[in-house]
Write a structure and sequence with these properties.
The complex is a heterodimer of chains A (617) and B (160). With 617 residues, chain A is α/β, with parallel strands linked by helices. Chain A folds into 5 domains: 108 residues, Glutaredoxin; 211 residues, NADH-ubiquinone oxidoreductase 51kDa subunit (Rossmann fold), CATH 3.40.50.11540; 84 residues, Ubiquitin-like (UB roll); 90 residues, Up-down Bundle (de novo design (two linked rop proteins)), CATH 1.20.1440; 56 residues, Alpha-Beta Plaits, CATH 3.30.70. Chain A contains 25 helices and 19 strands. Chain A has a 5-stranded mixed sheet. In chain A, strands 2-1-3-4 form a 4-stranded mixed sheet, covered by helices on one side. In chain A, strands 9-8-7-10 form a 4-stranded parallel sheet, sandwiched between helices. In chain A, strand 3 and strand 4 form a beta hairpin. In chain A, helix 7 packs across helix 14 and helix 8 runs antiparallel to helix 9. The longest helix of chain A is centred in the C-terminal third of the chain and has 18 residues. Chain A is globular and about 80 Å long. Chain B is an alpha+beta fold. Chain B has 2 domains: 54 residues; 89 residues, Glutaredoxin (3-Layer(aba) Sandwich). Helix content of chain B is 48%, strand content 11%. Chain B has a 4-stranded mixed sheet, covered by helices on one side. Chain B is elongated and about 50 Å long. Classes of the chains: A alpha/beta (617), B alpha+beta (160). Chains A and B meet through helix 2, strand 11, strand 15, helix 18 and helix 25 of A and helix 2, helix 4, helix 5, helix 6 and helix 7 of B.
């Protein structure tokens, strides 16, 4: 495609592409996101493509390999429009039938439909599935219609019209005002007002300014940024272009995790395509606006989620934070004014420009506007990416969308906001997903990771997990974080190994408080949150570890023993075969026994037993 | 495509110190690790002191300073995988292979690594073997996977 030199040429291209596609009667959307690819969706894509051409439907049916649909555990997922038919766990062998029955004849294949685990009913369409029904998918739904590797798809779907609106008739100050009145706050963690950030950067002295998209997504258990960047990279690019125009930047970077190979690949392709069409480069669409974007891959360091550390990493250096006496909007990348926003924040910008700030502000709460994407994971029925209006209660997310606990267990807590966030008990599930509400409760929205825990999750172990993570990820520059986290981990380890003393809990709180107040950067300042919230809401669990030397959830290895329930054991011998240290004995068809002296607590017997006969106490 | 040689990794990036991480990523993609020689060449090519190259290569988790095993088993230890029992998987792999994360077995066949999150939390716990995903893993499935991969080696040898 040739370079576009004016708004008219872009509109002309859009019309031309739509004209080309007017004979398409059916679209088959197959998810090619990381989750579905892990479930071998590539084989399904190849098989469907082959069937379409074999059955002579290559012209009238469009096969669209899309980004993530969010319901990863049902993968590979196929949606067929019109009809909104949703097929899940699709094996490649079914490609013929899907094309022949559903695409050609319009008949639904019952066995490929989603079965609601609650009612046991098969559900025909995507929009009727409870997981999707209670959501408000402003950003995620855009993934459905575009192939992330096709700028044409994005343009056909109306892409880059926010850019033309902005370049054609809005002064940078107007854009910033619009973002300010929309109430958009940063989706990456802190929830800082985006408009204020842009305003301060615009006002900062200097001609050389930068915009950066943070796609490093270091929070374990969160993957919304992967989904958006991987599934709709042009949306993020368009947001960055608008931001760059507003603050006066000519250069931008997407800082993306190398652990997300698809996101790296798709954003690279998107940048190349945008350059080819002249949407990046000098005099974009014939205007005075010049802007280009480069991709910088991260090196797998959680601390690089911190703005100064991230910028230092983009500069090719070690990702260590520095004191922020002067903010990065004034003194950022290469000491120039820089706006750093998260993927989801950028992705919200085009729609705000097109629909207006009051449209955006009509959703949400007084302090938190718009929608938020949450990564709902852990011990829950429906795991996946969930987008809800700000202000939605946690309960709705966990029970209505998530479908509640698995295997009839009791849900105990939800960990929100990653290592900087906190654990909230079921009693707090009426709290809303809202920046201010959650931080008052000791947690935070953070990037939106929501890990559900049930009675089999030990809260002391969870605190230990996060401390281990943070100790590993601490860059070591400031003492409170380097030594403080280490000492907290030491205490928690003693508790989980049955050597804890009651007075250690006070010491733990005191240490946590000191680290929170004195650490240099956000990582250290928030590092005590998992400890503080678990102590605040789950103190009895800590006490059980210390006083009774017991782990009520059966997780902490030093405090548990494995045994076999003779009533449930059928004597099938599977565990006996699987047990490497030969700790299990028993005759065929007789209940087996575990010799606790030989048992290494590896858990293999438990994972192999089909009768749930292995007990851990 | 990953660049074929060190020279290609440096092409178009010479004397640009900010390209250090990108260059190291490409080298690792191609060679599997960052050797001492590679660091020296990168240092000269980009005009970055060798100590700074080493500092960056050793700071970031993504970089290996030693060659990995033929099969790199990566355990996702993200929060979602953790609450679904990823620690048992790490124990299984380290116990079965007799090496710690970051180490290579003496026959050079396996190395174990762990990663903070692979972004496929819905399918956890996840283990990847040379980049291909194995989802909903259990200690038993992992043991079989390792056994299968070990036998492959025996068969390969028999075929030679």
């Amino acid at each position: 495609m040739s370079r576009l030199n004016s708004f008219r040429e872009l509109e002309h291209l859009r019309e031309h592409l739509r004209e080309q596609r007017k004979d398409i009667t059916t679209t088959v959307m197959v998810c090619g996101g990381t989750g579905c690819q892990a479930s071998r969706s590539q084989a399904v894509i190849d098989a469907v493509r082959e069937e379409l051409s074999r059955q002579g439907l290559g012209q009238s049916v469009r096969l669209c390999v899309t980004g993530c649909h969010g319901f990863c555990e049902q993968g590979p997922v196929i949606i067929i429009e019109p009809g909104n038919i949703f097929y899940c766990h699709v094996p490649p062998e079914d490609a013929f039938e899907i094309v022949y029955q559903t695409v050609k004849k319009g008949e639904v294949i019952e066995r490929l439909l989603y079965t609601d685990p609650g009612s046991g009913e098969r559900i025909r369409t995507e929009s009727e599935i409870p997981f999707y029904r209670a959501q408000d998918r402003q950003i995620l739904s855009q993934n459905r219609m575009v192939d992330p590797c096709s700028i044409e798809d994005y343009i056909v779907a109306g892409g880059y019209s926010a850019l033309t609106k902005v370049l054609g008739g809005m002064m940078p100050e107007e854009i910033i005002k619009e973002i300010q009145s929309s109430g958009l706050r940063g989706r990456g963690g802190g929830g800082f007002p985006t408009g204020r950030k842009w305003h301060e950067c615009r006002e900062a002295p200097g001609d050389e300014k930068y915009v950066i998209c943070n796609a490093d997504e270091g929070d374990p258990g969160a993957y919304m940024d992967r989904c958006v960047l991987e599934g709709n990279p042009h949306l993020v690019l368009e947001g960055m272009m608008i931001g760059a125009w507003a603050v006066g930047a000519r250069k931008g970077y997407i800082y993306v995790r190398n652990e997300y190979p698809l996101a790296v690949k798709h954003s690279r392709i998107a940048v190349e395509q945008a350059r080819e069409l002249g949407l990046l480069g000098d005099n974009i669409l014939g205007t005075s606006f010049s802007f280009d974007v480069d991709i910088a891959r991260g090196g797998g360091a959680f601390v690089c989620g911190e703005s100064t550390a991230l910028m230092s990493s983009v500069e090719g250096k070690v990702g260590e934070p520095r004191p922020k006496d002067v903010h990065t909007v004034v003194d950022g990348l290469y000491h120039k004014p820089t706006v750093l926003n998260n993927v989801e924040t950028w992705a919200n910008v085009p729609a705000i420009m097109l629909n207006g700030s009051s449209w955006f502000a009509s959703k949400g709460t007084p302090g938190s506007k718009g929608t938020k994407i949450l990564a709902l994971t852990g011990r829950i029925k429906n795991t996946g990416l969930v987008e809800v209006a700000m202000g939605t209660p946690i309960r709705t997310v966990v029970f209505d969308i998530g479908g509640g606990a698995v295997n009839g267990k009791m849900i105990k807590a939800v960990q929100i906001g990653g290592p900087s966030g906190g654990c909230l008990p079921v009693a707090k599930f009426d709290l809303a997903v809202d920046f201010d509400v959650l931080s008052e409760a000791g947690s935070m929205v953070g990037s939106g990771g929501m890990v559900v825990m049930d009675e089999d999750s030990c809260m002391v172990d969870v605190a230990k997990y996060f401390l281990t993570f943070l100790q590993d990820e601490s860059c070591g520059k400031c003492l409170p974080c380097r030594i403080g986290v280490d000492r907290m981990l030491e205490i928690i380890t003693e508790i989980t190994e049955g050597r804890g003393k009651p007075e250690q809990l006070d010491l733990l709180e005191e240490l946590a408080d000191t680290v929170a107040q004195t650490a240099l950067c956000g990582l250290g300042k928030t590092a005590p949150n998992p400890v503080l919230t678990t102590l605040r809401y789950f103190r009895p669990e800590y006490e059980a570890h210390i006083k009774e030397k017991k782990c009520p959830a059966g997780v902490c290895q030093a405090l548990i023993t494995y045994s076999i329930d003779p009533d449930k054991c059928t004597g099938c011998g599977v565990c006996l075969q699987a047990c490497a240290p030969k700790a299990i004995t028993g005759e065929k068809k007789q209940a087996h026994v575990i010799d606790v002296r030989l048992c290494q607590k590896c858990g293999i017997c438990r994972s192999e037993c089909k009768f749930d006969a292995i007990q851990v106490v | 495509m990953p660049p074929k040689t060190l020279e290609q990794a440096l092409e178009g990036r010479r004397s640009q110190p900010h390209q250090l991480i990108e260059v190291l990523q490409d080298i690792q993609e191609n060679y599997g690790y960052i050797s001492k020689e590679a660091m020296q060449i990168v240092s000269q090519g980009l005009g970055v002191p060798i100590i700074e190259v080493y500092r960056v290569a050793s700071f970031y988790k993504a970089f290996r300073l030693k060659p990995p095993g033929k099969h790199v088993l990566t355990m996702c230890t993200g929060t979602a995988c953790h609450v679904r029992g990823s620690r048992l998987l790490l124990d299984q792999a380290t116990g079965q292979l007799g090496v710690k994360p970051g180490e290579v077995t003496s026959d050079g066949l396996f190395s174990i690594e762990h990663v903070n999150c692979l972004g496929a939390c819905a399918l956890g716990p996840i283990v990847t073997e040379n980049g291909s995903y194995h989802h909903h893993m259990t200690p038993g499935k992992l043991r079989k996977l390792i056994e299968t991969l070990s036998h492959q080696k025996a068969e390969d040898k028999a075929n030679v």
